[in-house]
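Hello forum,

I keep getting stuck at the same step: I have a sequence, I want structure tokens, and every attempt I make locally crashes halfway through. Rather than fight my setup again tonight, could one of you with a working pipeline run this one for me? It's a single chain of 100 residues.
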Amino acid sequence: MNKTINRLKYIFLGLFLLGSAGVLAYHAMWVWPKEKCEARGGAWAGKWLKCATVYPIETMTRRPAGTPPINGEKATSSPTSPAKAGAQVEPTAAADKPKP
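Reply #2:
Ran it on my machine without issues. Output:
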């Protein structure tokens, strides 16, 4: 009877240590980096465990905010667009061409 109690004691102690190590590893690899990333304004990519920088679409396309879409693209409304702020937006060269 005493051997069984000792064996169960070691089994439960081992399970407790494995569970504790798993929780600590989860927090060290997922929770704490995600909190740090979101605190500095980044976007957490959980699939790759990386922090990404969020760029506005105007930075990538080099097109001013509020310009009309070209060639049937869907228009996106931006709350900080110059058209809403009262600024004049000049049409692009593609918008000036007549459509066949």
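Residues 2-52 form one domain. If your local run keeps crashing, start a new thread with the error log.
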